[in-house]
Amino acid sequence: MHPEHILAAPSHPNPYPYYAALVAGPPLVFDAPRKLWVAASAAAVNAVLGNPACRVRPAAEPVPQAIVGSAAGEVFGQLVRMNDGIRHDAPKLALQRFLAALDLDRVGARTRLIAAKAMGDEALRGAALSQWVFDVPVMAVADALGFAEAELPRVAGWTRDFVACLSPLSTPEQLAAAGDAAAALLARFSALVQADASPGSAVARIQQEAHEAGWHDVAALLANLVGLLSQTCEATAGLVGNSLVALATQAGLAETVGHDQERFLQMVNEISRHDPSIHNTRRFVAEATEVAGVSLQAGDVVLVVLAAAGRDPLCNPQPERFVLDRADRHVPGFGRGAHQCPGQALACNVAAAAVRALLESGMRLPAPASWHYRPSMNARIPVFSD
Ligand code: HEM
Q1: Residue 44 within a domain
Q2: Is residue 339 within 6 Å of ligand 1 at its C-beta?
């Protein structure tokens, strides 16, 4: 059975036949109950993401009302992810260059150690596994940013609390906790920047990139360091979790992947296309424009269904097949255009290393159907109960 509607798709057991029907239909369809245009084919997704009139936030609400005035709102308002124009371009360049220069082999090796330590001695199952899936990627990225090992679990906890403010499903209590967590993360990054200015440290390198990109706003830099953790959190947890689901459901996959790091990387790349963690993003039309022959007006909202585009046969032939070494793989799940994810290689290396550490610990894969998906309108993250 299809999901009830497009925003129920990310947490549906199998939304892909529904997405295939959308891809085969008109490029843009108006979903009247949700007041959204829906773009699902690869061509329509690319057209929306490449259209400068389609912005990442509504002009009238740059920061969600619910968090205006809190530390969470302060961070949100500075994020490159949430801005177009001058608050986006130079900061994005600096972050992109910093992330591109990371030593991914080192990050992978550190991730395996962090992942193994976070497993403890008990076999990871159910709630403990779900928690591990969330904590390890954020701890790995916090480690790459220079946090001391003893601080990693606390940083992961704050990051989870902070990202709650990004979901419209959050309660007032979660929003209050998000404010506290944002303040704590800003304070910790500020201390890190002051304490660890030695040349070659991660914060020194990012400051150097900021300087070279002409980005001199210290508060915005700190907010975007928090942003690196929040951008990692749910998306990479979903990639790790969906990898475990694939290993449990795709016959022979665990054996084929074996202990080969390259194959683990191929696996997470294919999962990012076949069963990705981020199913959709939104664009807000700032001025009248046309997309795929459809007139859009200022104030219109477009839901860009990245997960459907990855299954568009014009983008990836035989899209329903899981192909480890797929030639010319297109992965729309990391976005495209000005806001394309600069963390794709980092996320894939972290996820591959985490999953590998888990398999090499001798962990039994989750039993089929022993998971459901977290309630979310945009992310697909399994919750394990076995
Ligand atoms: C599997 C993991 C990840 C997925 C699926 C993912 C996906 C995405 C997507 C779809 C966007 C674009 C959103 C849009 O255009 O509306 C994005 C943006 C971004 N991502 Fe990722 N991401 C992941 C991990 C990461 C990591 C690990 C980092 C860095 C540590 C990161 C940093 C960013 C940043 C800074 C942006 C904003 C870019 C901009 O607005 O120009 N992401 N990500």
Answers
A1: yes
A2: yes
CATH of the domain at 314: 1.10.630.10
332 CB-side CA count, 13 A: 29
CA distances (Å), origin 37, targets 17, 24, 299: 20, 16, 11
Helices (H) and strands (E) in the chain, counts: 14, 9
Cα(324) to centroid of ligand 1, in Å?
Answer: 23
Residue 207 in tokens: 């400051």
What is the whole-number distance in angstroms between the Cα of residue 111 and the centre of ligand 1?
19
In a domain, 1, yes or no: no
Give the distance (Å) from ligand 1 centre to CA of residue 177: 23
Report the number of distinct structural domains present in the chain: 1
As a residue count, the chain comes to 386
As given in the structure block, the two tokens for residue 300 are: 């219109």
Q: Whole domain around residue 150: which residue ranges? A: 6-384
CA-nearest residue, atom 3 of ligand 1: 235
* Cα 72 from Cα 78, distance rounded (Å): 10
* Best residue for ligand 1 mutational test, from 155, 341, 349, 378 (most atoms within 8 Å of Cβ): 341
Going residue by residue through the chain, which has 386 residues, state the pLDDT in tens, using 9 for 90 and above.
Answer: 899 999 999 999 999 999 999 999 999 999 999 999 999 999 999 999 999 999 999 999 999 999 999 999 999 999 999 999 999 999 999 999 999 999 999 999 999 999 999 998 777 888 999 999 999 999 999 999 999 999 999 999 999 999 988 888 889 999 999 999 999 999 999 999 888 667 789 999 999 999 999 999 999 999 999 999 999 999 999 999 999 999 999 999 999 999 999 999 999 999 999 999 999 999 999 999 999 999 999 999 999 999 999 999 999 999 999 999 999 999 999 999 999 999 999 999 999 999 999 999 988 888 878 899 999 999 999 999 96
Report yes or no on 30 lying in a domain: yes
